[in-house]
Each structure stands twice: as structure tokens, then as C-alpha cells.
Design brief:
Radius of gyration: 19 Å
Number of helices: 6
Low-confidence stretches: none
Strand content: 15-25%
Distance between the termini: 21 Å
Structural class: alpha/beta
Oligomer: single chain
Strand order of the largest sheet: 1-2-3
């Protein structure tokens, strides 16, 4: 919850929902995506009485799907992704592509070099959808501008994010967009 971004916002929402409903909120943080520690944490939550589990990173999706089949009486909610079933596992995600389009309009209008950079975490559907929306916004106001994307391979790695931003600037970008968890590229 201390990242002041994606995870922090989810945590705040979970706290508010628990306060409003009287639910017992169980949390664990800093679980690597794809690790056995994630599955064990979910199993521990269920053993402690959890009847709903929320996971907030794309890399938890496969484990969530498998656990939902194993625990049909527990509801599983996964932030982002594309897998689901008809009974107890689904995904949720805001329409942030709309805001990405608007920022693309601004970027396309602001660039003087027609070179726009974009620092992104991973080439997964939610990120690509945002990049596409951003680029459509850019092209709406400036068809001559290009958007160059650099992937960091991490959601929150300020060192890689800074290096990616600097590489884009060195290549001529005078406006940057991003889909990573820290404000470092800006």
C-alpha cells in the first residue's frame, strides 16, 4: 500500500469498503507475481474465513483462476486481465483508456518535435489498450507526431523508468506519457 499509486488506491478502497460493510479486511503486500507465496497467502485468507479475494496485479491472474476452481464458495476478483469463469471469478478495471486518449490529445498538441515517448511496464492488454488510446489522441490533433514506447519490464522500478525516459528524451521526445506505478518518468 505504500507505493502511492495503483496498490495504494486499491488498499484505500478496500479499507473504505471494509469500514462501510463491517467486513474483516485481511491484507498481504509485496508478493511477487507468479510466486507460490501468492497462492499460499490466498489459502491462508480462506482458512481464516475470507469469502472474497481481491488481487491487484496482472501476474496473479492464472493463480486466481486455478484457486477459484478449487474454492467454488469463495468469490475471486482480479484487477485487470482477461480470464474469468461463469461462477466465482471475474476481472474488473476502470476505463482509463478514456483518460489516456485525453492525455494523448494534450501530448499531440504540446509536442514541438513531433516525437513523443511513452514509458510502459509490460506489453499486456491493459497497457497496450492505454497506449493505443493515447496514440489515437495524439494523432487526432497531430497526425505527424509519432509515439515511441519503451517497456521497463516492471510495474515500479524508478531506476529503469528514469533510464527509459532519458533514452526517449535523448532520441528526441519532448513529451512523455507513461503506464508505470511511479511518477519517475515525469
Amino acid at each position: 500500500p505504500g507505493d502511492a499509486g495503483w496498490t495504494w488506491a486499491h488498499h484505500r478502497g478496500a479499507e473504505q469498503a471494509a469500514d462501510a460493510t463491517g467486513a474483516n479486511l485481511l491484507t498481504v503486500e509485496n508478493i511477487p507475481e507468479g510466486s507460490p507465496e501468492f497462492e499460499q497467502s490466498v489459502r491462508d485468507f480462506i482458512a481464516d474465513g475470507a469469502d472474497a479475494v481481491f488481487a491487484t496485479s496482472f501476474g496473479y491472474m492464472d493463480a486466481m483462476e486455478a484457486l477459484s476452481a478449487e474454492f467454488p464458495d469463495v468469490d475471486f476478483f482480479h484487477a485487470t486481465g482477461y480470464l474469468s469463469n461463469d461462477s466465482n471469478f471475474g476481472n474488473y478495471f476502470g476505463r482509463i483508456y478514456q483518460a489516456r486518449y485525453l492525455t494523448g490529445l494534450t501530448a499531440g498538441a504540446a509536442t514541438e518535435t513531433n516525437e513523443i515517448g511513452y514509458v510502459a511496464a509490460f506489453p499486456i492488454p491493459e497497457v497496450i489498450r492505454g497506449i493505443n488510446a493515447f496514440t489515437l489522441g495524439v494523432r487526432e490533433v497531430n497526425p505527424d507526431a509519432t509515439v515511441t514506447v519503451v517497456y521497463t519490464g516492471a510495474w515500479n522500478d524508478p531506476v529503469k523508468e528514469r533510464a527509459a525516459a532519458m533514452a526517449l528524451i535523448d532520441a528526441g521526445a519532448d513529451v512523455l506519457g507513461q503506464h508505470v506505478d511511479s511518477p519517475t518518468p515525469q
